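Crash report, auto-generated. Payload:
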Amino acid sequence: MGLLEEKDKQFLKDKFSKEMDKKVKILFFSNELNCQYCKEIKMLLDEVSELSDKIEVQEFNFYNDKEEVSKYNLEESPVIVFLNEEGEDTGIRFYGIPSGYEFSTFIEDVVMISSGKHQLSDKAVEEISKIDKPIEIKVFVTPTCPYCPKAVFLAHQLAFINKNITGKMIESMEYGEWAQKYNVYGVPKNIVNDVVEFEGAVPEKVFVKQVLEAYKKADSSLIVQ
Amino acid sequence: MEKYDVIIVGGGPAGVTASIYTARANLKTMVIEKTAVGGQIVLSDIIENYPGFPEPIVPTKLLENMQKQAENFGVKFEFDEITEIKKDSDGFILKSDWDEFHARAVILAVGSVPKKTNVPGEEKFMGKGVAFCATCDGPFFKGKDVVVIGAGNSGVQEGLFLLNYVKSLKFIEFLPKINAEKILQDRIKQKENVEFYLNTQLLEIIGEDKITGVRVKNRETGEEKILPAEGVFVYIGYSPNTKFLNGLVELDERGYIVTNERLETSVKGIYAAGDVVKGTKSQVVIVAGSGATAAMNLIEDLEQ
Ligand SMILES: Cc1cc2nc3c(=O)[nH]c(=O)nc-3n(C[C@H](O)[C@H](O)[C@H](O)COP(=O)(O)OP(=O)(O)OC[C@H]3O[C@@H](n4cnc5c(N)ncnc54)[C@H](O)[C@@H]3O)c2cc1C
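Recovered output after restart:
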C-alpha cells in the first residue's frame, strides 16, 4: 500500500504540472544500521517523484558513498538533499522523514526550487544576500507540530537564496541524541551556527534578524564545515 | 503600498471565516497571520464539537479546509505581524516591521495567547520542559512524569492527549474543583496514572539544567510539597493579543475589545471578531459565527 492517498496524489500532480518549471534532484542518504524510517522515506520520495517527470530521486548509502557524503558535508543519516536542475546544492536538508506537517514543507521546497519563486520579502532578500560566510540553520521539529513548517520553510528559503546558508530540518524523535545535546524539549527550536538559539515560528523579520546576529558572530573557526 | 478593501488581522477560525464572507462579496481581502493559519485551535489534537463532523477531526484539517475555501474566493494570505494600525483619509494603514498595507476596513480577529504562570523557573525552562502545546512537544516526554497546570477544558483535553506518551500526569488546579466539561472529567477519571491536586498553588518550577519538579502549596492547609516532574504543561487561561493596538480601539479592563452587537469597535471602519471580543465564549463554532457577523456588517457598511 502506498503512503499517499489517491486524492492527494491527484492534487499534487496538478500542482506540480501548474507550478513546476525546471527539474529538481532529490538525493536520499539512507543507512541500514539505525534508521527507523528509511523504508518509508524512500517510498514517499518514490511516490512523489512519480507525480512529475521533473522530479528525480537518487538513493545513496551513507556508509558506502563516501564521496557524496563529504561533498554535501553530511554528518548523519537519514538525510535528504535537494539539488537544482544544474545539479547545484541548494543547501536544503531534511534530517529525518518529512512526514506529518513537514510533508507540506517538502512539497513547497520542490516547487520553489523548480519555479525559482520564494515567498521572502524584498527586504529579507536584501539583508540575507549580504551574508558571505557559512551559516547553518538547524530547525528541530516533531511531525505533529503545526507551527514547525513555517520555521523550516523560512530556513529553507534563506538557504535557497544564499549559497552560504544551509537550512536543516531535524526530526527530533529520529535524531534523539541531537535533540538531547541541544536540550530540545519544545519545537520548533531554531539554532544558527550553534551560537544563536530561539524558539517558535516567528515572523520573517525576527528570523532574519537572528540569522544576521549569528552572521555577525561568525568567526570561521567556530563553524564546523 | 498594496491596497485592499478589507484586511483581517489574525488567521484563526474567526478571521478565516470573515474572509470567506468578504471575498465572496467581491471585496478584495487579505488575511495577515503572524504564526500559522489556524490560530489557537491547531494547538489541540482533536475537535469533536464542531457541527457537521460526526467523527472527531484534526483541527488543522478543518482550518486548512477553511483556508482553501477562502482562497477559492480569492483571499490572499500573508505571513506577517502587524505592529501598528493608523487611520488615514480613506481607511487604515497597517504596518509590520518591513511592510505597509492599506485597507478601507479592518477586522481584528487576533485572538488570545496562553497565560504564563510567572512563577520562578518558568522563564528559565521555557521550551526546555515548560510547554504550551501538547501536540507539538508531547513526544519529548515519553515515559516521563509530567504536571499540567490548570484543570479547565484545555488542560484536561490536552492532558488526555499527553497520556499517549507520559508515565504519569499530575494536575495542579488553583480552584477547589475541576473546571472542565463533565464529559472530559469522566474520561480523565477513568485513567490510572492521573492525580489531581486541587486548591493548590504552583510556587516554583525547580531544577538545575533540567526540570526535576514543581513546588506547590495546598491553599487550605498551607502545606508545601515538591512533586517530581520533568515536564510542565501550562493551561491557565488566555490573554488577548491587543497590546499592539496601543489604545486605538476601546478595550475592557482585561484587554478584550469592546464592540456593539454589530461587532463594530469604537473606531468606525474597524470591526472585531472571535475570542478577542469581550464576552465571547471560546469555541470554534462561536468565533466562526462571530467572523461571519463582523464580515456581513462590514459588507453592509462598505456598500453604503
Ligand atoms: C488547547 C486548546 C483546546 C481547544 N479545544 C477546543 C475545542 O475542542 N472546541 C472548540 O470549539 N474550541 C476549542 N478551543 C478554543 C478555540 O481554539 C478558540 O476559541 C479559537 O481558536 C478562537 O479563534 P479566533 O480566530 O478568535 O482566535 P485565535 O485562534 O487565537 O487566532 C488569532 C490569530 O491571530 C494571530 N495574530 C494575533 N496578533 C496578530 C498580529 N498582530 N498580526 C498578525 N497576526 C496576529 C495569532 O497568531 C492567531 O493565529 C481550544 C483552545 C485551546 C488553546
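Post-recovery validation: Chain B has a mean pLDDT of 96.
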